[in-house]
Amino acid sequence: MKRLVILGGGESGVGTALLGKEKGYEVFVSDKGTIKQKYRDVLLNNDIDFEDQKHTESKILNADLVMKSPGIPDKVPLIKQIRTQNIEVISEIEFASRYTKANLVAITGSNGKTTTAALTHHILKQEIEVGLAGNIGDSFAKQLLEKNYQNYVLEVSSFQLDDIKYFKPNMAILTNITPDHLDRYDYKFENYIASKFRIVENQSSEDYFIYDADDPVISNHIKNHSIQSKLLPFSLVKQLDEGAYYSNNAITITIDNNKIIMPTQNITLEGKHNIKNAMAASTVAHLLKIRKQTIRESLENFQGVEHRLEHVLRINKVQYINDSKATNVNATYYALESMDAPTVWIVGGEDKGNDYKELFPFVNEKVKAIICLGVDNTKLFEAFGNMVDVIVETQYMSEAVKIAYKVSEAGDNVLLSPACASFDLFENYEDRGRQFKNAVRNL
Protein backbone atom coordinates (compact mmCIF):
# COMPACT_ATOMS: atom_id res chain seq x y z
CA MET A 1 0.00 0.00 0.00
CA LYS A 2 1.45 3.37 -1.02
CA ARG A 3 1.92 5.96 1.69
CA LEU A 4 0.53 9.46 1.08
CA VAL A 5 1.74 12.13 3.49
CA ILE A 6 -0.14 15.41 3.55
CA LEU A 7 1.48 18.54 4.96
CA GLY A 8 -1.17 20.98 6.16
CA GLY A 9 -4.53 20.06 7.70
CA GLY A 10 -6.69 22.75 6.13
CA GLU A 11 -9.29 22.57 3.33
CA SER A 12 -6.97 21.23 0.61
CA GLY A 13 -5.14 18.88 3.00
CA VAL A 14 -8.24 17.24 4.42
CA GLY A 15 -9.86 17.00 0.97
CA THR A 16 -6.75 15.21 -0.33
CA ALA A 17 -6.75 12.91 2.72
CA LEU A 18 -10.34 11.80 2.00
CA LEU A 19 -9.69 11.23 -1.70
CA GLY A 20 -6.37 9.49 -0.96
CA LYS A 21 -8.02 7.10 1.46
CA GLU A 22 -10.77 6.32 -1.05
CA LYS A 23 -8.10 5.57 -3.69
CA GLY A 24 -6.36 3.05 -1.45
CA TYR A 25 -3.46 5.06 0.00
CA GLU A 26 -2.23 4.75 3.55
CA VAL A 27 -2.76 8.40 4.58
CA PHE A 28 -1.01 10.54 7.19
CA VAL A 29 -1.72 14.25 7.78
CA SER A 30 0.86 16.45 9.53
CA ASP A 31 0.37 20.13 10.42
CA LYS A 32 2.90 22.37 12.15
CA GLY A 33 0.10 24.57 13.46
CA THR A 34 -3.20 23.58 15.08
CA ILE A 35 -5.74 21.75 12.94
CA LYS A 36 -9.16 23.44 13.22
CA GLN A 37 -11.83 21.48 15.07
CA LYS A 38 -14.05 21.00 11.99
CA TYR A 39 -11.14 19.38 10.12
CA ARG A 40 -10.06 17.28 13.14
CA ASP A 41 -13.59 15.87 13.30
CA VAL A 42 -13.49 14.87 9.62
CA LEU A 43 -10.12 13.12 10.06
CA LEU A 44 -11.28 11.32 13.23
CA ASN A 45 -14.60 10.25 11.69
CA ASN A 46 -12.74 8.78 8.70
CA ASP A 47 -10.03 7.03 10.76
CA ILE A 48 -7.27 9.06 9.13
CA ASP A 49 -3.99 9.23 11.06
CA PHE A 50 -2.84 12.81 11.82
CA GLU A 51 -0.69 15.02 14.04
CA ASP A 52 -0.58 18.75 14.68
CA GLN A 53 1.76 21.32 16.26
CA LYS A 54 4.68 19.30 14.94
CA HIS A 55 6.15 17.46 11.97
CA THR A 56 7.51 14.03 12.92
CA GLU A 57 10.21 13.41 10.31
CA SER A 58 10.21 9.63 10.67
CA LYS A 59 6.51 9.57 9.78
CA ILE A 60 6.98 11.90 6.82
CA LEU A 61 10.19 10.81 5.14
CA ASN A 62 8.84 7.28 4.55
CA ALA A 63 6.22 8.63 2.13
CA ASP A 64 5.79 7.50 -1.49
CA LEU A 65 4.03 10.78 -2.29
CA VAL A 66 3.77 14.11 -0.44
CA MET A 67 0.97 16.64 -0.96
CA LYS A 68 1.92 20.00 0.52
CA SER A 69 -0.43 22.82 1.34
CA PRO A 70 0.05 25.88 -0.90
CA GLY A 71 0.93 27.92 2.19
CA ILE A 72 4.22 26.04 2.78
CA PRO A 73 7.20 27.57 0.92
CA ASP A 74 9.81 25.41 -0.81
CA LYS A 75 12.53 27.00 1.32
CA VAL A 76 11.40 25.13 4.45
CA PRO A 77 14.14 22.62 5.53
CA LEU A 78 11.62 19.73 5.75
CA ILE A 79 10.58 20.23 2.10
CA LYS A 80 14.22 20.36 0.99
CA GLN A 81 14.83 17.13 2.88
CA ILE A 82 11.84 15.42 1.23
CA ARG A 83 13.07 16.50 -2.19
CA THR A 84 16.64 15.26 -1.62
CA GLN A 85 15.12 11.82 -0.94
CA ASN A 86 13.44 12.00 -4.37
CA ILE A 87 9.95 11.74 -2.90
CA GLU A 88 7.43 13.29 -5.29
CA VAL A 89 5.93 16.54 -3.91
CA ILE A 90 2.67 17.72 -5.50
CA SER A 91 -0.19 20.14 -4.86
CA GLU A 92 -3.82 19.24 -4.22
CA ILE A 93 -5.00 20.22 -7.73
CA GLU A 94 -2.35 17.90 -9.20
CA PHE A 95 -3.39 15.01 -6.95
CA ALA A 96 -7.12 15.47 -7.57
CA SER A 97 -6.76 15.93 -11.34
CA ARG A 98 -5.24 12.44 -11.61
CA TYR A 99 -8.63 10.98 -10.62
CA THR A 100 -10.99 12.71 -13.01
CA LYS A 101 -11.75 12.82 -16.72
CA ALA A 102 -13.86 15.97 -16.25
CA ASN A 103 -13.55 19.05 -18.42
CA LEU A 104 -11.36 21.48 -16.41
CA VAL A 105 -11.47 25.28 -16.62
CA ALA A 106 -8.56 26.66 -14.57
CA ILE A 107 -8.24 30.35 -13.73
CA THR A 108 -5.21 32.16 -12.35
CA GLY A 109 -3.86 35.72 -12.22
CA SER A 110 -2.69 38.29 -9.68
CA ASN A 111 -6.17 39.82 -9.49
CA GLY A 112 -9.66 38.98 -10.67
CA LYS A 113 -9.37 35.21 -10.48
CA THR A 114 -12.01 34.74 -7.76
CA THR A 115 -14.54 36.98 -9.49
CA THR A 116 -13.84 35.38 -12.88
CA ALA A 117 -14.13 31.87 -11.42
CA ALA A 118 -17.39 32.68 -9.61
CA LEU A 119 -18.83 34.40 -12.70
CA THR A 120 -17.80 31.55 -15.05
CA HIS A 121 -19.40 29.02 -12.70
CA HIS A 122 -22.54 31.19 -12.42
CA ILE A 123 -22.99 31.24 -16.22
CA LEU A 124 -22.17 27.56 -16.83
CA LYS A 125 -24.38 26.16 -14.06
CA GLN A 126 -27.47 27.57 -15.80
CA GLU A 127 -27.10 24.87 -18.48
CA ILE A 128 -24.54 22.23 -17.44
CA GLU A 129 -23.44 20.26 -14.37
CA VAL A 130 -20.39 22.10 -13.00
CA GLY A 131 -18.41 22.34 -9.76
CA LEU A 132 -16.48 25.34 -8.40
CA ALA A 133 -13.31 24.54 -6.46
CA GLY A 134 -9.64 25.26 -5.88
CA ASN A 135 -8.98 28.37 -3.83
CA ILE A 136 -12.69 28.94 -3.51
CA GLY A 137 -15.18 26.94 -1.41
CA ASP A 138 -14.61 23.19 -1.05
CA SER A 139 -11.34 21.64 -2.17
CA PHE A 140 -11.20 20.05 -5.63
CA ALA A 141 -10.30 16.65 -4.11
CA LYS A 142 -13.32 16.67 -1.80
CA GLN A 143 -15.69 17.66 -4.61
CA LEU A 144 -14.44 14.83 -6.82
CA LEU A 145 -15.31 12.43 -4.04
CA GLU A 146 -18.76 13.85 -3.33
CA LYS A 147 -20.06 15.15 -6.65
CA ASN A 148 -17.88 13.98 -9.52
CA TYR A 149 -19.20 16.59 -11.96
CA GLN A 150 -18.45 16.45 -15.69
CA ASN A 151 -17.07 20.01 -15.54
CA TYR A 152 -15.10 21.99 -12.95
CA VAL A 153 -14.15 25.64 -12.69
CA LEU A 154 -10.97 25.87 -10.61
CA GLU A 155 -9.43 28.98 -9.13
CA VAL A 156 -5.72 28.22 -8.85
CA SER A 157 -2.91 30.22 -7.25
CA SER A 158 0.71 30.35 -8.32
CA PHE A 159 1.54 28.34 -5.18
CA GLN A 160 -0.70 25.50 -6.37
CA LEU A 161 0.81 25.69 -9.86
CA ASP A 162 4.34 25.45 -8.43
CA ASP A 163 3.70 21.82 -7.53
CA ILE A 164 1.95 20.44 -10.60
CA LYS A 165 3.37 17.78 -12.87
CA TYR A 166 0.67 16.62 -15.31
CA PHE A 167 -2.18 19.01 -14.42
CA LYS A 168 -3.75 19.96 -17.75
CA PRO A 169 -6.85 22.16 -17.94
CA ASN A 170 -8.88 22.08 -21.16
CA MET A 171 -9.30 25.83 -20.80
CA ALA A 172 -6.83 28.02 -18.95
CA ILE A 173 -7.53 31.66 -18.11
CA LEU A 174 -4.82 34.13 -17.09
CA THR A 175 -6.42 37.38 -15.92
CA ASN A 176 -3.28 39.52 -15.42
CA ILE A 177 0.19 39.48 -13.86
CA THR A 178 1.42 42.18 -11.48
CA PRO A 179 4.16 41.87 -8.85
CA ASP A 180 2.70 39.94 -5.91
CA HIS A 181 3.96 37.33 -3.42
CA LEU A 182 7.51 38.12 -4.52
CA ASP A 183 8.78 37.04 -1.11
CA ARG A 184 8.03 33.45 -2.26
CA TYR A 185 9.89 33.90 -5.57
CA ASP A 186 13.30 35.16 -4.40
CA TYR A 187 12.05 38.68 -5.16
CA LYS A 188 12.37 37.90 -8.88
CA PHE A 189 9.33 38.94 -10.89
CA GLU A 190 10.31 36.56 -13.72
CA ASN A 191 10.03 33.57 -11.33
CA TYR A 192 6.50 34.60 -10.43
CA ILE A 193 5.60 35.07 -14.13
CA ALA A 194 6.95 31.59 -14.96
CA SER A 195 4.90 30.16 -12.11
CA LYS A 196 1.64 31.65 -13.47
CA PHE A 197 2.41 30.34 -16.98
CA ARG A 198 2.68 26.77 -15.65
CA ILE A 199 -1.10 26.73 -16.11
CA VAL A 200 -0.49 26.10 -19.86
CA GLU A 201 2.63 23.94 -19.72
CA ASN A 202 0.82 20.62 -20.25
CA GLN A 203 -1.77 21.92 -22.68
CA SER A 204 -1.94 20.62 -26.27
CA SER A 205 -3.35 22.07 -29.48
CA GLU A 206 -6.78 20.69 -28.46
CA ASP A 207 -6.84 23.05 -25.45
CA TYR A 208 -7.49 26.78 -25.08
CA PHE A 209 -5.57 29.62 -23.43
CA ILE A 210 -7.69 32.70 -22.66
CA TYR A 211 -5.70 35.75 -21.54
CA ASP A 212 -5.61 39.54 -21.23
CA ALA A 213 -3.99 40.86 -24.42
CA ASP A 214 -3.70 44.34 -22.85
CA ASP A 215 -1.33 43.06 -20.15
CA PRO A 216 2.26 43.81 -21.30
CA VAL A 217 3.75 41.15 -19.01
CA ILE A 218 1.56 38.43 -20.52
CA SER A 219 2.00 39.58 -24.14
CA ASN A 220 5.75 39.75 -23.71
CA HIS A 221 5.95 36.23 -22.27
CA ILE A 222 3.81 34.79 -25.08
CA LYS A 223 6.09 36.42 -27.69
CA ASN A 224 9.17 34.77 -26.20
CA HIS A 225 7.81 31.31 -25.30
CA SER A 226 6.00 28.75 -27.40
CA ILE A 227 2.54 27.81 -26.16
CA GLN A 228 0.86 24.73 -27.64
CA SER A 229 -2.76 25.61 -26.93
CA LYS A 230 -5.09 27.71 -29.06
CA LEU A 231 -4.79 31.37 -28.07
CA LEU A 232 -7.98 33.31 -27.29
CA PRO A 233 -7.02 36.83 -26.13
CA PHE A 234 -9.42 39.46 -24.77
CA SER A 235 -8.96 43.24 -24.94
CA LEU A 236 -10.54 46.54 -23.97
CA VAL A 237 -8.52 48.54 -26.53
CA LYS A 238 -7.95 46.54 -29.71
CA GLN A 239 -10.36 44.77 -32.04
CA LEU A 240 -9.46 41.09 -32.29
CA ASP A 241 -10.33 38.65 -35.09
CA GLU A 242 -10.12 35.72 -32.68
CA GLY A 243 -11.03 36.03 -28.99
CA ALA A 244 -13.04 38.79 -27.27
CA TYR A 245 -12.99 42.57 -27.38
CA TYR A 246 -15.00 45.45 -25.99
CA SER A 247 -16.23 48.44 -27.98
CA ASN A 248 -19.39 50.60 -28.07
CA ASN A 249 -20.71 49.14 -24.79
CA ALA A 250 -20.66 45.59 -26.14
CA ILE A 251 -18.48 42.50 -25.95
CA THR A 252 -17.76 40.74 -29.26
CA ILE A 253 -16.52 37.14 -29.03
CA THR A 254 -15.23 35.29 -32.10
CA ILE A 255 -14.09 31.66 -32.03
CA ASP A 256 -13.49 29.85 -35.35
CA ASN A 257 -15.58 32.43 -37.25
CA ASN A 258 -18.47 31.90 -34.86
CA LYS A 259 -19.30 35.36 -33.52
CA ILE A 260 -21.57 36.58 -30.72
CA ILE A 261 -22.16 40.16 -29.55
CA MET A 262 -23.33 40.97 -26.03
CA PRO A 263 -24.48 44.40 -24.83
CA THR A 264 -22.91 45.35 -21.47
CA GLN A 265 -25.06 48.28 -20.27
CA ASN A 266 -26.80 46.12 -17.67
CA ILE A 267 -23.85 44.13 -16.29
CA THR A 268 -24.10 44.22 -12.50
CA LEU A 269 -20.32 44.31 -11.91
CA GLU A 270 -18.81 47.80 -12.03
CA GLY A 271 -15.44 48.90 -13.40
CA LYS A 272 -13.34 48.22 -16.51
CA HIS A 273 -11.55 45.28 -14.89
CA ASN A 274 -14.91 43.55 -14.52
CA ILE A 275 -15.59 43.93 -18.25
CA LYS A 276 -12.37 41.90 -18.67
CA ASN A 277 -13.56 39.29 -16.17
CA ALA A 278 -16.86 39.13 -18.08
CA MET A 279 -15.04 38.65 -21.41
CA ALA A 280 -12.98 35.77 -19.99
CA ALA A 281 -16.01 34.05 -18.45
CA SER A 282 -18.15 34.54 -21.57
CA THR A 283 -15.40 33.11 -23.80
CA VAL A 284 -15.47 29.88 -21.75
CA ALA A 285 -19.27 29.80 -21.89
CA HIS A 286 -19.21 30.31 -25.68
CA LEU A 287 -16.67 27.46 -26.05
CA LEU A 288 -18.94 25.19 -24.00
CA LYS A 289 -21.92 26.07 -26.24
CA ILE A 290 -23.90 27.95 -23.58
CA ARG A 291 -26.65 29.97 -25.28
CA LYS A 292 -26.01 33.68 -25.82
CA GLN A 293 -29.21 34.63 -24.00
CA THR A 294 -28.13 32.63 -20.94
CA ILE A 295 -24.70 34.28 -20.93
CA ARG A 296 -26.25 37.74 -21.15
CA GLU A 297 -28.81 37.12 -18.40
CA SER A 298 -26.14 35.61 -16.14
CA LEU A 299 -23.89 38.67 -16.54
CA GLU A 300 -26.88 40.84 -15.63
CA ASN A 301 -27.87 38.97 -12.46
CA PHE A 302 -24.47 37.95 -11.04
CA GLN A 303 -24.11 39.29 -7.50
CA GLY A 304 -20.30 39.46 -7.25
CA VAL A 305 -17.95 37.98 -4.68
CA GLU A 306 -17.90 38.72 -0.94
CA HIS A 307 -15.08 41.15 0.05
CA ARG A 308 -14.57 42.28 -3.55
CA LEU A 309 -16.05 45.79 -4.10
CA GLU A 310 -19.04 44.59 -2.09
CA HIS A 311 -21.63 47.29 -1.39
CA VAL A 312 -22.43 46.91 2.30
CA LEU A 313 -24.85 49.67 3.32
CA ARG A 314 -25.76 53.24 2.50
CA ILE A 315 -25.96 55.35 5.69
CA ASN A 316 -26.86 59.09 5.57
CA LYS A 317 -26.32 58.95 1.79
CA VAL A 318 -22.78 57.58 2.23
CA GLN A 319 -22.02 54.23 0.49
CA TYR A 320 -19.80 51.81 2.47
CA ILE A 321 -17.83 49.40 0.24
CA ASN A 322 -15.92 46.30 1.37
CA ASP A 323 -12.93 45.46 -0.85
CA SER A 324 -10.96 43.56 1.80
CA LYS A 325 -9.85 41.06 -0.86
CA ALA A 326 -7.61 43.78 -2.33
CA THR A 327 -4.39 42.45 -0.83
CA ASN A 328 -2.08 44.15 -3.38
CA VAL A 329 -1.71 47.58 -4.99
CA ASN A 330 -3.06 46.48 -8.35
CA ALA A 331 -6.35 45.31 -6.82
CA THR A 332 -6.73 48.65 -5.04
CA TYR A 333 -5.96 50.40 -8.35
CA TYR A 334 -9.10 48.80 -9.83
CA ALA A 335 -11.14 49.75 -6.78
CA LEU A 336 -10.11 53.42 -6.82
CA GLU A 337 -10.51 53.55 -10.60
CA SER A 338 -14.15 52.51 -10.25
CA MET A 339 -15.02 55.12 -7.57
CA ASP A 340 -17.36 57.78 -8.94
CA ALA A 341 -17.66 59.98 -5.82
CA PRO A 342 -15.33 61.58 -3.24
CA THR A 343 -13.89 58.69 -1.26
CA VAL A 344 -12.73 58.07 2.31
CA TRP A 345 -10.16 55.32 1.88
CA ILE A 346 -9.24 52.77 4.57
CA VAL A 347 -5.86 51.24 3.67
CA GLY A 348 -2.94 49.35 5.20
CA GLY A 349 -1.82 46.07 6.72
CA GLU A 350 1.17 43.89 6.10
CA ASP A 351 3.06 45.45 3.20
CA LYS A 352 4.52 43.03 0.62
CA GLY A 353 7.04 45.56 -0.72
CA ASN A 354 4.34 47.81 -2.20
CA ASP A 355 4.99 50.65 -4.61
CA TYR A 356 2.07 53.07 -4.29
CA LYS A 357 3.02 55.36 -7.23
CA GLU A 358 0.40 54.00 -9.63
CA LEU A 359 -2.34 55.06 -7.17
CA PHE A 360 -1.26 58.75 -7.01
CA PRO A 361 -3.52 60.01 -9.85
CA PHE A 362 -6.63 58.42 -8.30
CA VAL A 363 -5.77 59.58 -4.79
CA ASN A 364 -5.28 63.16 -6.02
CA GLU A 365 -8.51 63.07 -7.96
CA LYS A 366 -10.91 61.05 -5.78
CA VAL A 367 -9.68 60.52 -2.22
CA LYS A 368 -10.61 63.15 0.41
CA ALA A 369 -9.34 61.34 3.53
CA ILE A 370 -7.12 58.34 4.30
CA ILE A 371 -7.43 56.07 7.34
CA CYS A 372 -4.38 53.85 7.85
CA LEU A 373 -5.19 50.52 9.46
CA GLY A 374 -1.96 48.64 10.11
CA VAL A 375 0.67 47.96 12.73
CA ASP A 376 3.20 50.05 10.80
CA ASN A 377 1.81 52.88 8.65
CA THR A 378 5.02 54.85 8.01
CA LYS A 379 5.14 54.02 4.32
CA LEU A 380 1.54 55.15 3.78
CA PHE A 381 2.21 58.48 5.51
CA GLU A 382 5.31 58.98 3.35
CA ALA A 383 3.43 58.14 0.14
CA PHE A 384 0.16 60.00 0.70
CA GLY A 385 0.73 62.46 3.57
CA ASN A 386 0.91 65.50 1.27
CA MET A 387 -1.95 64.49 -1.00
CA VAL A 388 -4.93 64.63 1.34
CA ASP A 389 -6.04 67.01 4.09
CA VAL A 390 -6.96 64.22 6.48
CA ILE A 391 -4.72 61.20 7.13
CA VAL A 392 -5.04 59.32 10.44
CA GLU A 393 -4.02 55.94 11.79
CA THR A 394 -5.68 53.34 13.95
CA GLN A 395 -5.29 49.65 14.77
CA TYR A 396 -8.96 48.85 15.26
CA MET A 397 -11.52 48.32 12.52
CA SER A 398 -14.37 49.68 14.67
CA GLU A 399 -12.45 52.90 15.20
CA ALA A 400 -11.51 53.17 11.50
CA VAL A 401 -15.18 52.96 10.56
CA LYS A 402 -16.20 55.54 13.20
CA ILE A 403 -13.58 57.98 11.90
CA ALA A 404 -14.80 57.38 8.33
CA TYR A 405 -18.36 58.09 9.48
CA LYS A 406 -17.24 61.42 10.98
CA VAL A 407 -15.23 62.68 7.98
CA SER A 408 -17.65 61.59 5.23
CA GLU A 409 -20.55 63.66 3.88
CA ALA A 410 -23.68 62.88 1.87
CA GLY A 411 -22.74 61.55 -1.58
CA ASP A 412 -19.33 60.16 -0.50
CA ASN A 413 -18.01 56.60 -0.57
CA VAL A 414 -16.20 54.90 2.30
CA LEU A 415 -13.92 52.27 0.76
CA LEU A 416 -12.00 49.54 2.59
CA SER A 417 -9.36 48.54 0.02
CA PRO A 418 -6.20 47.73 1.99
CA ALA A 419 -3.63 47.01 -0.79
CA CYS A 420 -1.87 44.88 1.84
CA ALA A 421 -2.07 41.45 3.48
CA SER A 422 -4.18 41.25 6.63
CA PHE A 423 -2.05 39.15 8.94
CA ASP A 424 -0.76 41.97 11.16
CA LEU A 425 -4.16 42.70 12.74
CA PHE A 426 -6.58 40.08 11.37
CA GLU A 427 -6.79 36.34 10.83
CA ASN A 428 -7.19 36.76 7.03
CA TYR A 429 -8.85 39.08 4.51
CA GLU A 430 -12.28 37.48 5.19
CA ASP A 431 -11.98 38.27 8.90
CA ARG A 432 -10.96 41.85 8.02
CA GLY A 433 -13.93 42.24 5.64
CA ARG A 434 -16.43 40.82 8.15
CA GLN A 435 -15.15 43.11 10.90
CA PHE A 436 -15.64 46.05 8.52
CA LYS A 437 -19.21 45.00 7.70
CA ASN A 438 -20.06 44.48 11.38
CA ALA A 439 -18.62 47.88 12.29
CA VAL A 440 -20.68 49.54 9.52
CA ARG A 441 -23.85 47.78 10.69
CA ASN A 442 -23.18 48.97 14.25
CA LEU A 443 -22.91 52.66 13.32
From TrEMBL:
Signal peptide: none annotated. It is found in: Cytoplasm. Its EC number is 6.3.2.9. GO terms for molecular function: UDP-N-acetylmuramoylalanine-D-glutamate ligase activity. Residues 307-420 form the Mur ligase C-terminal domain. It catalyses: UDP-N-acetyl-alpha-D-muramoyl-L-alanine + D-glutamate + ATP = UDP-N-acetyl-alpha-D-muramoyl-L-alanyl-D-glutamate + ADP + phosphate + H(+). Pathway: Cell wall biogenesis; peptidoglycan biosynthesis. Residues 107-285 form the Mur ligase central domain. ATP binds at G109, S110, N111, G112, K113, T114, T115. The keyword Transcription does not apply. It comes from the Bacteria. HAMAP family: MurD. This is UDP-N-acetylmuramoylalanine--D-glutamate ligase. It comes from Winogradskyella alexanderae. The gene is murD.
